[in-house]
Design a protein that fits this description.
With 379 residues, chain B is of the alpha+beta class. Chain B contains 13 helices and five strands. Chain B is elongated and about 85 Å long. In chain C, helix 3 crosses helix 4, helix 4 crosses helix 6 and helix 6 packs parallel to helix 7. The longest helix of chain C has 18 residues. The chains are: A alpha/beta (334), B alpha+beta (379), C alpha/beta (338).
Amino acid sequence: MHFPIKKGIFGSVVGHVKAVDDVSLTVNEGEVVGLVGESGCGKSTVSRCIVRAYNPTAGEILLYDTSGQAVDLAKLPETALRPYRRDVQMVFQDPFASLNPRMTLKQIIGEPMRNYGLYKGKAREERIAYLLEAVGLRPEHMSRYPHAFSGGQRQRVGIARALALNPRLIICDEPVSALDVSVQAQILNLLRDLQSEFGYSYLFIAHDLSVVDYICDRVAVMYVGKIVETTDAETIFEKPQHPYTSALLSAIPKLNPRLRQLPVPLEGEIADPANAPSGCVFHPRCRYVEDRCRHEVPQLRETANNHVVRCHFAGELEFEKSVEATGNSSVEAS
Amino acid sequence: MITLDTAQPIDDIPISEAEEKHLTASQWQLIWWRFRRHRAAMISMAVLVVLYTIALFAGFFAPHDPRDVVAEFADAPPQLPVFWDSAGVHFPPVVYSYVGERDPRTLRKIYRLDSESRQPIRFLVRGEDYKLFGIVSTDIHFIGLDDPDQPFFLLGTDSLGRDMLSRIIFGSQISLTIGLVGVFISLILGILLGGISGYLGGWIDVGIQRLIEVLRSMPTIPLWLALSAALPRNLNQVQIYFGITIILSLIGWTEIARVVRGKFMSLKHEDFILAARTNGTSRMRIIVVHMVPSFSSHLIAAMTLALPIMILSETALSFLGLGLRPPIISWGTLLEGTQNLDAIALTPWLLFPVVPVIITVLAFNFIGDGLRDAADPYA
Amino acid sequence: MSGNTLLEVHNLKVHFHTEQGIVEALRDVSFEINHGETVAVVGESGCGKSVMARALLQIVPPPGKIEDGRIVYNPNGDSLELTKLPPQGSKIREIRGADIAMIFQEPMASFSPVHTIGNQINEAIIIHQNVSRQDATQQTIKILERVGMPQPSRIINRYPHQLSGGMRQRAMIAMALSCQPKLLIADEPTTALDVTTQAQILRLLRDLQDEFGMAILFITHDLSVVSQFADRVVVMYLGEVVEAADVITLFEEPKHPYTQALLHSIPHIGVKHGQRLDAIPGSIPNPLNRPKGCRFHTRCTQMIDGVCNTVEPALIEVGENHWARCVLYEDQYQKNPS
């Protein structure tokens, strides 16, 4: 996906931002895949390309039906796309912006069914009640408007709406990062329970690796528009192979005051995608950088079974732990 | 049934029926509840209801026919109602009769009010015949004197001896509606062009935006002058009326188009619009069900604020003799008579039509402010 | 009160007088900060942590008002009661910025977009230190260099929008530290940043604290940042302090059910697959409609009916310098003394 950079009164295109470049990702039936990265890495652009909020500049988005037939969603015009939209639904980050404040819960959750002519009349109302119950809300509140609900409850409404069409893939775009800490766990548990009960596939987008660790089977890490590492969740947390993944992991503050971070895991700033560095996009911040990284763009390589890394030295690097157990020495009890 | 333990309903603090009413309240109810707290706007609303009622039943509220020429009482000063004087308190209030004299030097006829001759004001009296709404024939007037032939000019008369109060009341029919029609035309143009501009974007958007900028950068008074000078001379009254409203709305639509375009642009990227797209909502339904209700309240506020501008513009144009022309009665044409200083010095009561103009403009502004504050109950 | 105390807050009470009614933003908030110490105030939205930070500097936004309480500032032996100072007076303005500085979540909010970074920091130095413009510029360059700005002599001519989020945060820290404050109030300084930038900023704050010796009041919703950064922790819920302890005690022996539940509900690496998070049920109550009795009772799993929903618990000392606001630690309700 490339975005044009426009300038001047009549908005002529003077350049392109490669927001996402050459991203390949597979979500299997019933699988939860995490897409992780820091702001500006392009993870949200990927999700929005899949639901065709943006039209990708190049590439394919293949949706397989139950018999194994694939459709390329990337190129379908809006009218031809419509029948496939019901298979891919989305849960949004901001529970306040993602619900139309002028519609009741009944209208919000009923709309997808209305659009596809499913569950007419009484049956639709029953299904709305069922969905509300499934996400932990009271069916008798269906005539309320979103302003009656807290952030966490609204997020449940958003989930119920995504479930209404019984989709095959649900894209969860940072579904808990706008919520209060005490509510995040509720929503994560709910998403996981729904997944194990109904076998949905999730593409779970997050900037927070600890959330991803909790819910995902497989994880892809993105940096400046490119996937740098993909593997199953356990491996990525125990044996990351890309220096960026390793740095990202050690940058997460530990929930233990006796384990305090010592060196800063990553110096410098995220590269500007409009002006990306040559060679490996990560090389200006990488502490294992060598001359080759500055000129040669690394390709994704499979280094182990199901473990794909975009680094010239994947599998050869030993990462040092940047966390050290500090006794009471640096923490003075007052 | 679902047995997930995350699916346990969340037990909230029990709420009262009044609170439940708030939770199920639609956008318009919320707006109304917020608007109601805006005291100046509520008072203004009552004032406007009174003004429009008077305009609607002009024949009933006006004591005279506005075109009735009483040469005997030309340029007569106002007979303001008197509630008490040396003779005590009067209820109903009284008016003093005129005593006409001639100024020995200028030979102008001047009137004095004779405080000895009192005429009580009566309500619902019989007077001249008129047709209510042009259909119902009646002769009941809201106020008047026992003897319909006695002079009764609460706000004085003009140089032809026509009753100012009746003329102001009939003038309100034109002045209060010309803004509505003008705003309505602006609204249609504004939604159409602003919507196209905001929804489609690209070259069409650029073109429409540049057009708006050009229109808005023109000095309005000369533009109106030129346009009204271009209106053919041989139009009848109704045609002139519509001609003027179209001229006024030619500028008015730009503001509304900008509001609509801005809303379309920002709404296009809202998550709930994307959510509607991803669950298969058609483009038409997204516009009608999701987008338009999201800014209709802002639009009403913008319209309310555009109305006083229209009313003032009509007044200004007519005052300059380039808008409506006599015999059409509007607040602007009434003020045309005050163009020379002598008239203001000798017959200052001809300036009375300014008062309803000020009241109306203020009232619309207050209501517009109230609506604007209440327009987004979810902010 | 020990001789080491820099700032004491006693029974602070702030109300917001809104059209819908009075919101008790802070109720009976007391704590203290020692010289050179880092105290973290942690809580979720609506707990009043940001209002509290602003109350310390008497900059509570309207319609908020400090109703009651004392804030005693004790820089070097002679104590000064900030709550007695007129909020617009010259004395408090001297303290704001020079003695007590504040940094915010969104650095753009504290910089004017139409002046260069250098000018704005210069201005702060000139106002509080009475030095010439050249000297101020030298100091500005030095402090910008100290906070890790690349090429500080060029950065001073930049406008805030020309810097990235992390750089703006550094510039704001530089401005806050330009007058060497005794107390730095940091209101969610890393919330808007990415984890790798957050780690850099936290490290920077810690290094600067070692160097300048100021105390830091760190306001955040993120318990893992607290565990990495604080010496002592104050936990707030709906305008009240519910627990206060040193950081090791708080994370290893939390006493208040809210703190306990919060610590269990946070997803962190190491919570393995198949293991559920112990979510806190319900949502944070509406600030206009606060629960009677203990404010947490609507979501508490250890709620005692007839007690927690009627009695307002007091802050009890449950250990050395460890306070919790819960009836479970009052003798008459103690069921399982463990």
